[in-house]
Amino acid sequence: MMDKDINSNKQQQGNSMGGKDKSKMAGQKKNKKGSFIVLTGIILAAVILLIFYPENRAPSIEASLNLLKELILILPAVMILMGLFSVWVSKEIVVKYLGHASGIKGLGLALFVGMMPTGPLYIAFPMASMLLKKGARVANIIIFLSAWACIKLPQELVELRFMGFKFMVIRLSFTIFMVVIMGLIIEKIENYSKSSQN
């Protein structure tokens, strides 16, 4: 009897794992399909705009080529960094410092890490994806991306020089406050959508 129970438990566990794998594969296929639809929509919109505004064709194509050159130069280095990050930084460390149990310290760390870099924002997206996969909470990722976009430390020094200390402090305080609130709200929405799906 015990052997039968053990075998049935193993079979149930195997079925549940198989179900998870199938749902994960279905989710990946859905994401790929959605990405393809978005890309197709962007290309169609670009073609339509270039047809209706022919005077903007040359500057648009030139800007696109410049961006493509920048991506070709930067993305390989970013991919190498992501590979090193995935090997050197364990899931336990990410969960400890940026996971749900990290609390206010995690929010502050995400803000601080996002403030440091000076590169373009698209570099941050693969980093954010890697952190999410390793167990970082959604609020911390939103704060990290938002800080990278609008609270960079070199930018604040330039702002201090031209706009003055009072302006910089007021704007920075409001920006940090709204970034944190936005991260927490988006996390709540995502948790609610996950619970409603289950």
Structure, briefly:
With 198 residues, the chain is an all-alpha fold. It is 86% helix and 0% strand.
List the helices and strands and how they pair.
Elements: H1 2-52, H2 57-88, H3 91-98, H4 103-115, H5 124-133, H6 138-150, H7 153-163, H8 165-197
How does this structure look, described?
With 198 residues, this protein is an all-alpha fold. It folds into two domains: 1-52; 89-198, no CATH class. It has eight helices and no strands.
Write out key terms for the chains shown.
globular; 2 domains; mainly alpha; 198 residues
Specify the oligomeric state.
Answer: single chain
Structural class: mainly alpha
Number of helices: 8
| Uncertain residue segments | none
Q: How many strand units?
A: 0
Q: Based on Cα principal axes, name the global outline.
A: globular
From the alpha-carbon coordinates, what is the Rg to the nearest angstrom? 22 Å
Overall average residue pLDDT: 81
Helix percent reads over 70%
